[in-house]
Write a structure and sequence with these properties.
Helix content is 21%, strand content 33%. The longest helix is centred in the C-terminal third of the chain and has 24 residues. Helix 2 packs across helix 4. It has one domain. The radius of gyration is 25 Å and the shape is globular.
């Protein structure tokens, strides 16, 4: 029998290692009722900006990596057959690419799970946003970094982002963390889910990549140091320069 093991039931040493892996992904964990993961809601433009790679492809392999003997947690390694690179150096990425996520694996009859963290199935087609950290690569913004690709009734490729059991927060005008809705509210007489075409997502991501490249180039050309205009010396009147009579 396989039992489910949440991180809250892991030994302190293993829990610390798992939390460290999640912090590398920019995830904050809080005791939020009904949720195990609190994530800052980030627009797609910022996710693309902080991602080193954005890849479209198909999951060809999942592998359990048990590092408990080293005082760490159980991880899952995913291998992606790359179809297209939306951001990054295609030559360096190669035909396949791998990354790891904490949990999502079964070891010794226990399933290690992180509520809210997305999972990947072998054969699944996805678009993933990946950022680099000390141990390799991980999803940018946790569940916000995965788009599931599917075909609709007309054969059009569309993407869906499942946000799962996650509590999203945002910063208000005063900089305080407040609750943020994770799902768009459907309009009346419209289907409850709006799934963007894959071609539209591809165009949007490539547009952000080009925009960020232009901004980076403009910043590199900007003069360094103070930008204030130099002060111009104003000549004093001649009578002010003349020596005073004793």
């Amino acid at each position: 029998m396989i039992r489910s093991l949440h991180l809250s039931r892991v030994r302190p040493a293993l829990l610390a290692a798992a939390l460290a892996a999640l912090l590398c992904a920019g995830v904050a964990l809080h005791a939020t009722p009904g949720h195990a993961m609190t994530v800052l809601k980030v627009p797609l433009s910022e996710l693309v900006k902080t991602s080193e790679l954005v890849l479209h492809g198909q999951i060809t392999r999942t592998r359990v990596i048990d590092r408990r003997a080293k005082g760490l947690a159980v991880f899952t390694e995913f291998t992606l057959r790359v179809v297209e690179v939306y951001k990054g150096d295609a030559k360096r990425v190669g035909r396949t690419f791998t990354w790891e996520l904490v949990g999502g694996s079964t070891a010794d009859g226990l399933t290690w799970s992180v509520p809210g963290m997305p999972t990947f199935q072998q054969g699944e087609e996805v678009v993933v946003l990946l950022e680099k950290h000390a141990r390799g690569y991980t999803l940018t913004g946790a569940p916000q970094g995965k788009f599931h690709v599917f075909r609709d009734a007309k054969g059009i490729s569309r993407v869906h982002r499942g946000l799962g059991d996650v509590h999203f927060v945002r910063r208000d005008a005063q900089g305080r963390m407040v609750h943020a809705d994770s799902h768009a509210k459907p309009l009346l007489l419209q289907p409850p889910r709006f799934d963007q075409p894959l071609a539209s997502l591809r165009k949007e991501i490539r547009g952000y990549v080009a925009l960020h490249a232009r901004q980076k180039a403009a910043a590199a050309k900007a003069p360094t140091g103070a930008t204030a205009k130099p002060r111009v010396a104003v000549p004093l009147p001649r009578r002010a320069l003349a020596p005073r009579k004793p």
